[in-house]
Amino acid sequence: MNSVALVRCETYELGALETALRKTIDLIGGINRFVTPGARVLLKPNLLCARSPGKCVTTHPAVVHVVAKMVLDAGGKPFIGDSPAIEPFKWVAAKSGMDKVARDLGIELIELTSPIFVFSTPGATFRKLAIASEALKADVVINLPKLKTHCQMMFTLGVKNLFGTVVAQRKAEWHCMAGVDRDTFASLLLDIYLTVKPAVTILDGIWGMEGHGPSNGRPKKINLVAAATDAVALDISICNLLGGPLRLFPIFRKARSRKIGETDIRRIIFKGDVPQSFAIDVFQIPALDSLAVLPGAFHWFAKNYLVSKPFHEEKFCADCGECEKICPAGAITIKNKKSTFDYNKCIRCYCCQEICPHDAIRFKKGLLVRLLSRFNR
């Protein structure tokens, strides 16, 4: 059976946070279980885009600070690294507070920029992956996700956070190849997880995000830090804790079918605080739909009539052009400060919504989602 440590923490104040995080790690064996003297340790936060910590889009810098200090105390050599989807790394590092963490502790802060091709583990969906060499050459990877909802994948937690080890320009390629179907994309994420092999995943859930995540949702106080060596068990535990239907969580479905990690919530041992102590009366989880609802011959019908479509909310648009840049299918054109979508090209990967800094990309619900919503499914 796999263990997931859950510890209550209500603040990012360094003293209280360090106490909570050390307790969390001690519950699963202590930092010396994962870090040996001299080991080069990648700290992989969620640095999706250039937002301040209060927006709850990125891993809080205080969490990274404390974990880096723990690694230093164990004799390791920590460095912070990620590959944001589109915005310049320096902007993201400055806005998220990561550059200050690196300066204060005298550690490296690097952009993951050098992909190398590696063969996946036996049984993988994708035989060959291009992963940042900086991640693969680290002696230890400590995964530091933010607890957030995700309009395509329901949640972005431990497994999804490792998509950041795919170098920026290649993210769009993968979205185009695998992002059409949620289960296929979940399988890709699991392939990456098995390739990068994080030693431990430590979740920042003191403040999380609900609703229109991963970049335009609402901050939500959850008062939780969590850790596990099995990121699948951690993700499933958090989904269940927040009331997410596991049958609709793509990571759960694919991990269960591929027998990756612990997917039976009854077999997960919770250490520290009990899951019920983090119960939230209302936590808004985004409604998901899928392209794979009809046989291939009817794919065009499902795509155009059953599933949700992105559309441009002009009154919120700042004409930054980020949606056009990120679109892996080349389905967005900006003209006269207005974005238009070619729905025949659009693969419904929702990268445009994910990256838009002004929440100007919304969804027109497809017939399938409207029907499921009516029946509370």
Question: Could you walk me through the main structural features you see in this protein, from its secondary elements to its overall organization?
Answer:
This protein has 377 residues and is an alpha/beta fold. The chain is built from 14 helices and 16 strands. The strands form 4 sheets. Strands 1, 2, 3, 4, 7, 8, 9, 10, 11 and 12 form a 10-stranded mixed sheet that branches. It has a two-stranded antiparallel sheet with strand order 5-6. Strands 13-16 form a two-stranded antiparallel sheet. Helix 1 (14-26) packs across helix 2 and helix 2 runs parallel beside helix 4. The chain folds into 2 domains: 3-278, Rossmann fold, CATH 3.40.50; 296-374, 2-Layer Sandwich (Alpha-Beta Plaits). The protein is globular, with a radius of gyration of 20 Å.
